[in-house]
Specification:
- The chain is α/β, with parallel strands linked by helices.
- It has 2 domains: 77 residues, no CATH class; 212 residues, 3-Layer(aba) Sandwich (Rossmann fold).
- The chain has a 7-stranded mixed beta sheet, with helices on both faces.
C-alpha cells in the first residue's frame, strides 16, 4: 500500500534544502486538512459533495475545474448546466454518469469536444513528450553520447503510443525500446499488446519485472503509479533493473487536497463508465509531488528535477494537475 508515515514525511519536508520555509509550512498544513470533505467513489456522491462544498466555500477555482472535467465528456453547455444544478440539488454519481451517457448518445458531437486549431499542429501528448525529452537530452545524458544506444523501458505502456512518442523524440533504436504492462487494464488487452512495434513483456504475476538487473538507462511511468498497490515492490524492481546512474521519469497528478482527490477519481470514473463501459472501481492512491519524492527517497531513488504541466498545447489551464519528475539510481 502507498502509506505515508506522517511523522517521517514531515521530517523529510523539514530536511529539504530546496524549498522555502513557507512552502514547508504549506505542505504540512495541507496534509493536516486531508479527509475533511472527502468521500470515496463507493459513497456514490462525489459529484454532489465536490460541487456543493465548492459552492458553499465560494471557491470558483474548484467549480471551474469541475466544468472543465465534465466538458471533456459532454461539452461546455451541458457541463456548465450540470454543475449549476449540483450546487443545490442532490444526485447520485450513478445518476449523473447515466445522464451524461444519454446526452452523448443523443448528440455524438458531445463526445468529441471542439478543440482549438492549434491541435492540428501537434497533439497534446506529443507536445508534452517532446518537451520532456528535450530536457532529458540536454540535462540528463552525457554530451556527445550515442542516444540511439539508450535502453528504455515504459512501465504501464498501454497501447504503446506514448512509448513510441518518447522513443522517437529521444532518437532511440526500437531494438532498445521495451514496454511492460498487466494483461488487462481498461481498453488494453492481450490482443493489443501483441501489436507493438517495440519489445514487450508482461509484468509478472507477483508484480516483478521480467528483466535482468542493471539493464536500462531510462524507465518511464506515465500516469500509472497511482494505480499500483505495492508501490515499494515496484520501485524496488525499478531500482534493480536500472543501471547505476540510470534515470526514471514519472508523470503524475499533483494531488494536494480533497478536491483534487475527488476530481481525479471522478475523472477515472467518467472514463471507465463513458469510454470503456466499465463501472468497476479500481485501486488508486494519489499524492502530491513532495509525497512522491518521499516515497522515491525511501526506495533509494534520488530526485533530480520536476516541472508542472499546467497548460495544454493551446495554453488553456489543465484541471488534472499533472507534472513530471526525474529520479536517479545512485
Amino acid at each position: 500500500m502507498n502509506k505515508i508515515d506522517k511523522e517521517e514525511y514531515f521530517s523529510f519536508i523539514d530536511s529539504n534544502n530546496e524549498i522555502t520555509n513557507c512552502e514547508k509550512k504549506v505542505l504540512k498544513y495541507l496534509t493536516t486538512q486531508l479527509g475533511k470533505i472527502y468521500v470515496d467513489r463507493k459513497s456514490d456522491k462525489q459529484f454532489y459533495t465536490y460541487v456543493n462544498n465548492a459552492n458553499k466555500s465560494q471557491n470558483p477555482t474548484q467549480l471551474s475545474k469541475m466544468i472543465i472535467l465534465l466538458q471533456k465528456f459532454i461539452g461546455y453547455k451541458q457541463a456548465n448546466k450540470l454543475t449549476q444544478e449540483l450546487k443545490y440539488n442532490f444526485a447520485t454519481d450513478k445518476t449523473i454518469l447515466k445522464r451524461m451517457d444519454e446526452l452523448r448518445s443523443k448528440d455524438k458531437k458531445l463526445s468529441r469536444p471542439n478543440k482549438n486549431d492549434v491541435y492540428n499542429l501537434c497533439s497534446s501528448w506529443k507536445y508534452i513528450i517532446e518537451n520532456i525529452s528535450l530536457y532529458y537530452l540536454n540535462n540528463l545524458t552525457e554530451s556527445n553520447s550515442d542516444v540511439s544506444k539508450i535502453k528504455y523501458l515504459d512501465i504501464g505502456c498501454g497501447n504503446g503510443n506514448k512509448t513510441t512518442m518518447f522513443s522517437k523524440a529521444i532518437g532511440l533504436n526500437l531494438d532498445n525500446v521495451y514496454g511492460t504492462d498487466i494483461k488487462q487494464w481498461g481498453p488494453y488487452d492481450a490482443e493489443l499488446h501483441g501489436s507493438h512495434d517495440f519489445n514487450f513483456k508482461y509484468l509478472k504475476e507477483d508484480g516483478t519485472l521480467d528483466f535482468p538487473d542493471n539493464h536500462f538507462d531510462l524507465i518511464s511511468c506515465v500516469l500509472m503509479l497511482h494505480h499500483v498497490e505495492s508501490i515499494d515492490l515496484l520501485l524496488g524492481e525499478i531500482r534493480r533493473v536500472l543501471k547505476p546512474n540510470g534515470k526514471i521519469l514519472i508523470i503524475e497528478h499533483d494531488c494536494h487536497d480533497d478536491y483534487d482527490k475527488m476530481l481525479l477519481e471522478l475523472l477515472h470514473g467518467c472514463f471507465g463508465y463513458l469510454e470503456d463501459k466499465n463501472d468497476e472501481i479500481s485501486y488508486s492512491s494519489y499524492h502530491n509531488w513532495m509525497e512522491w519524492n518521499y516515497i522515491f527517497n525511501r526506495n533509494k531513488l534520488h530526485f533530480n528535477h520536476f516541472n508542472y504541466i499546467f497548460v495544454n498545447i493551446d495554453h488553456n489551464t489543465r484541471f488534472d494537475n499533472i507534472y513530471y519528475a526525474f529520479y536517479t539510481k545512485k
